[in-house]
Amino acid sequence: MTRYHPSLILFGLAFLFGCALLLFANQAPQAPQPSKHSQATQAQSRTPREPSPSPAPARTAVPEDSVYQLQARFTNQDNAEFVLAERAGGVQLVAMFYSSCKYVCPLIIGSARGVQKALTPKEQAKLQILLVSFDTVRDTPARLKATAAEHKLDLKTWTLARTTQADVRKLAALLGLRYRELAEGEFNHTSELILLDANGRIMARTDKMTPIADPEFLAKVRAALK
Amino acid sequence: MHPRIFCLIGTALASLLCTTNSALADTAMPGYQLLPAGRFNSALSDAENVANAENDAGLWVDAFALMDKPVSNSEFLRFVITHAIWQRDKVPSVFAEARYLQHWAGPTRLSVSTDEAANMAQQPVVNVSWFAASAYCESVNARLPRWIEWEYAAAADETRADARADPAWRERILSWYSQPSNTPLAAVGQGPANFYGVQDLHGLIWEWTEDYAAMLVSSDNREQNEQNRLKFCGAGALSIDDKEGYAVLMRVAMLSSLRARDTTANLGFRCARSLPSQAAGKQP
Hints:
- By secondary structure, chain A is α+β, with helices and mostly antiparallel strands.
- Chain A has helices at 6-27, 34-45, 105-117, 121-126, 141-150, 165-175, 215-225, and strands at residues 73-76, 81-83, 92-97, 128-133, 158-162, 179-181, 187-189, 193-196, 202-206.
């Protein structure tokens, strides 16, 4: 029986270690913003038609005109990750905002709350509300949690979420919202509440940011919840 | 020999290779030109910044790399072959409208005629949505250029970094916009290389930018009233500073009218890359 000299084995290990280092170093410079890029590319490489890894009960494939085609990973106020398709199955309101906004964002939350308040308790229980932040730097899960607490949002129906900059752009594009980052963490953005059906298709939208729900929009929400 | 020596040699060898490799990857970026950092007076500016004298010197642009030519049909064909979801018969309709790549003969075929296919291969790809353009750039570890970066690169002529004040230069650019758009597109890389070595920014196609949707243009600062405060969170919309730069303004008007799934017969793209921070020359 041949016995390998221990030094040979050690050399082999050192070589493998070296190779691993080499691989790592080779990848780093190609992706100047490793976290952002790797996530974005990952999101892209999973084909939108692939079923989501969610444990959700057997549901039909995401329709091709659905916002849920976006494969981005989101993180909520409790630091839990999700993809949009996991929210399929129920009607929801979606809006984009950012925590440090003084003018409009409280109005966005207020108007979503206005819709909620106009519903019966039974309807309320069926309507999920998702707020996604434009601010990928400041709106950490902890900050989102604080914002939820500040506005006394019931986390059984409200979700505050963040994602990467590249995916914020894609989500805004899918929702038809326009935004622009200004100096010092401010954002210009259009404000709308968007109603998604159980499959993530846009059913209705309103840009009336009022504490008392836009009646036309409210009627569509009600119809969707039937 | 003591076994540890081998271990050391192995690691040393590996780290030597690593250093060489990363050094190379930093400098060699075929198909891209490096643009230095600098201050730049965009034709657009934030209404709030206009009132702020400190911003008179222009906006800071970090150094970045920009593709020297727009992406061609053949390059985009290779992409859809390896990323099948972006073939025109497979792409979900939220990511591209029906006219997506309609000038190709088939989902993975430019033309039935070999001659025409060879010709098309060199032309810039058009009829691509913002989502498709973004996905292409991500596939090559890049992104779409931001508007300010595109405008910064496009302000140069062959000899000057910023030729925008020259009426002759403006005339030359404008002459392209007056050409009918139904003439066949030229091949990429035929236009003169500008100061930075970048070609075809003018005179060939319109190009997507990463933040095309950020161009909330208002025609006049006086429109920044309460109504707009409600519509646009934070500050007001952009306003136009350089009212003589028609060519740029036409781009802005066109881009700001588009949605991300839209495609048009003369809208293509090129990609850009941010540089690692040590090379980027950060704002002082």
